Amino acid sequence: MLPYKELARLDKLVHEPARLAILTALSACTLAEFLFLQELTGLTKGNLSSHLAKLEKAELIVIDKHFIRKKIPQTTVRITDEGRAAVDRHWKQLASIHRAIQRQGAHNENHIVSRTTLT
After folding, report:
1. Is pLDDT above 80 for 108?
2. Domain spans of the chain?
3. CA pair distance 80, 78, nearest whole angstrom
4. Which of 23, 34, 65, 114 is 20 to 30 A from 71 in CA distance terms?
5. Which spans are transmembrane here (predicted)?
6. What are the residues whose beta carbons fall under 8 Å from the beta carbon of 38, sequence distance 6 or more?
């Protein structure tokens, strides 16, 4: 199969840029506070909440909402084992596709690329 067609087979839940940023950040730590993720990703509160809800529904993350000293709300987010596996698999797929495209490009370096060359 052509490497370009493999791009269409990527997990769209994980591949969406904001969710990929969230999952990648969470894969590097034990847990993160909502406000930290918001600052890190540059997303608005509503947008971040929406993406987190999708990831939680897919069981890729766990969200914990609680109060500090009974007054200060705090939301923390943790990646699940399934989420960690999904983001690792995604980055490996992208790297594999990228290598295949580079190899194909090197193979066709001094040629005019046409439809027949790619099939």
Report:
1. no
2. 3-118
3. 6
4. 23
5. none
6. 44, 45, 48
Rounded CA gap, 23 and 82, in Å? Answer: 11
Contact 94, 101 (CB under 8 A): no
State if pTM tops 0.85. no
Torsion angle of the four alpha carbons 108, 110, 115, 118, in this order, in degrees rounded to the nearest 10: 0
**What span, in angstroms and rounded, lies between the C-alpha atoms of 67 and 62?**
17
CATH, range 3-118:
1.10.10.10
Cβ neighbours of 14 (radius 10 Å): 21
112 vs 13, which has greater pLDDT? Answer: 13
Cα(114)–Cα(118) distance, rounded to whole angstroms?
A: 7
pLDDT at res. 49? 97
